[in-house]
Design goal:
Blueprint lengths: L1 E6 L4 E8 L3 E9 L5 H5 L7 E5 L23 E3 L16 H7 L3 E4 L3 H11 L2 E6 L5 H10 L9 H4 L5 E3 L13 H8 L27 E6 L4 H9 L3 E6 L4 H6 L4 E4 L10 H10 L5 E4 L1 H10 L3 E17 L4 E13 L1 H6 L3 E6 L5 E6 L4 E4 L14 H12 L11
Parallel strand pairs: 3-4, 4-5, 5-6, 9-10, 9-11, 11-12, 12-17
Antiparallel strand pairs: 1-2, 1-7, 2-6, 3-7, 8-10, 13-14, 13-15, 15-16, 16-17
Helix pairs in contact: 6-12, 9-10
């Protein structure tokens, strides 16, 4: 079946549909990852977006429910250059088209993703519409121009759970191999772990709670990926997940030792309720922000956010960890960033900087017990350069230690 992707600037791309049929609108962004398409596909941060994969072949190793980063996909569309007719992997339980069809996601294959990516890089992220049922190109462009812009959109309400829950699943067999000093310590809860033999799956990390007090961490779910929660459990934390609209009083009643704000979709400035909750909790307990959580913490402190031209979506972005004097290769997925001058005016200290465009990638606020990074230290399938951040935060909430630059210089 023929499908079309129309952009708000009038550009039309045609290909072959896979997955569900229908018409969907969304902001069109590109992702540069060569692998991990299923983790991209099930990341709630892509709610309201049509994702274009720049690597030409996607779907070659199939899909399985074990690798889901959320309960279901939330993205509006998925665009690839080449879709293999039959996946091949011993862990695969279904194909990418099967997954799209089961969850109502429109897929588009066989089109010039390089030309589309170049257009987005030149003009920035554009609103678009993907359709299997509308052939009138003018009508498609009209729908794209009338779709809601990402700026001002609170999409957290579409992905956040309605009730609190406990989370107990660790990384287990998928604990990263100890190839990097920070990863080695993070993967073991602070100690060394014997390296697995070549070809042998990584061994499960020992439970830190077996020898140390188990801290209680509350994770505010604005669309948090499961791997954030798994990493916290692997570091010996007891994890309670609460909705994004949980009031500060309800969070305090849980008596947490620390708070984690995970990733999520949309414009951070529009998530006003969660920002107000975070502002009331600042300074009362250690807080770790990741991706959208990084932006919400900045806003709660009084800083400003702004929209990036085409965002950072990929798994190979170099970030300078200034306290450690080390470059970390990171996984990223965000379209907004925290403004550095406004953050410094409210006492935030810059700790991480993007080496591609010099945008803010991490900060601390020692007086408010805050640490935050814009990228994804929990990245699956990787890279794992920043996995140490979970160990460092777990140490803070376990011991009551300070959050300062030395904490990140591991």
């Amino acid at each position: 079946m023929i499908a079309r992707l129309a952009l708000e600037d009038g550009a039309i791309f045609t290909g072959v549909s896979f997955g569900a049929a229908g018409t969907r609108t969304g902001e069109v962004v590109f992702n540069t990852a060569m692998a991990g398409y299923q983790e991209v596909f099930t990341d709630p941060s892509y709610c309201g977006q049509i994702v274009v994969m720049t690597y030409p072949q996607m779907g070659n190793y199939g899909v399985n429910e074990e690798d889901f980063e959320s309960g279901r996909p939330y993205l509006s569309g998925f665009v690839v250059k080449e879709l293999p007719p039959r996946p091949s992997n011993y862990r695969a339980t279904a194909s990418l088209p099967n997954l799209c069809a089961a969850h109502g996601v429109l897929g588009l294959a066989g089109m010039d993703t390089r030309a589309l990516t170049r257009r987005i890089r030149i003009y920035g992220a554009l609103r678009g519409v993907i359709s299997t049922e509308i052939a009138d190109e003018l009508e498609l462009v009209r729908l794209a121009t009338q779709s809601p812009p990402m700026e001002g959109s609170n999409l957290v309400t579409q992905v956040s759970p309605s009730e609190p829950r406990e989370w107990s699943e660790p990384l287990g067999a998928w604990t990263p191999l100890p190839t990097h000093p920070g990863v080695r310590a993070a993967a073991t809860g602070g100690g060394e772990r014997g390296a697995a033999a070549v070809g042998e799956p990584p061994r499960a990390a020992p439970a830190a709670a077996a020898v140390e007090r188990q801290p209680h961490v509350v994770a505010v779910d604005c669309g948090a990926k499961h791997n954030i929660l798994r990493n916290l459990v692997t570091q010996g934390c007891r994890v309670t997940v609460v909705p994004a609209d949980a009031p500060p009083g309800a969070i305090r009643e849980l008596r947490p030792d620390g708070l984690v704000l995970g990733n999520g979709p949309g414009d951070p400035a529009a998530v006003t309720g969660t920002i107000a909750t975070v502002r009331e909790l600042l300074g009362r307990l250690p807080i770790f922000g990741i991706c959208l959580g990084h932006q919400l913490l900045g806003l709660a402190l009084g800083a400003k956010t702004y929209k990036l031209r085409f965002g950072h979506h990929g798994v190979n972005t170099p970030v300078l960890n200034q306290p450690a004097g080390r470059v970390e290769i990171t996984s990223q997925n965000h379209g907004f960033a925290v403004d550095i001058p406004s953050l410094e005016r409210v006492g935030g200290l810059v700790t991480h900087v993007n080496l591609n465009d010099r945008s803010l990638e991490g900060f601390i606020h020692p007086d408010k017990q805050v640490m935050a990074v814009q990228y994804h230290p929990e990245a699956s399938p990787g890279p794992h350069d920043a996995a140490y951040l979970f160990r460092q935060f777990a140490a803070v909430v376990r011991t009551g230690g300070p959050i300062n630059r030395d904490l990140l210089a591991t």
